[in-house]
């Protein structure tokens, strides 16, 4: 599977690595770990403003169904209405993508997801709103 290049902040990687062992779905955790290994890592201040980072709000489309979603990518303890965990299949797929990119990702029950990033409505790094 040919995946698009991704960019992830070093701070997000540190925080995600600390929770990977808590993942209920080991397949998602393994896939996310592989994504982190292939990612270009940058300082939070150097993240381009069109990249999905932790706590970003993104408008995306699931290509198979054509459904559009507005989701905020969060850590598992922050999941709620409109918020998806980075340890869930959709959340793991979104991390590090840029506006305009698509990714194929194993979804729930092995059903493939093809997610396309339409718009980044909010990114903490672009707003200087990240905690070191």
From TrEMBL:
Pfam families: GreA_GreB (PF01272), Rnk_N (PF14760). Residues 48-122 form the Transcription elongation factor GreA/GreB C-terminal domain. It comes from the Bacteria. InterPro entries: GreA/GreB_C_sf (IPR036953), Rnk_N (IPR029462), Tscrpt_elong_fac_GreA/B_C (IPR001437), Tscrpt_elong_fac_GreA/B_fam (IPR023459). The keyword 4Fe-4S does not apply. Residues 4-42 form the Regulator of nucleoside diphosphate kinase N-terminal domain. This is Nucleoside diphosphate kinase regulator. It comes from Alcanivorax quisquiliarum.
